[in-house]
């Protein structure tokens, strides 16, 4: 393979990995915020 093809493939794989990591972090952050909000709502009901 040419150098250009290798560079494009490696760049695409790094970009895909970073996008997956960012999506996972966003999903985790949102679920933790939601869990904390629900927990706080139940704590104030007592």
TrEMBL record:
Native species: Paraburkholderia fynbosensis
Name this polypeptide is given: Uncharacterized protein
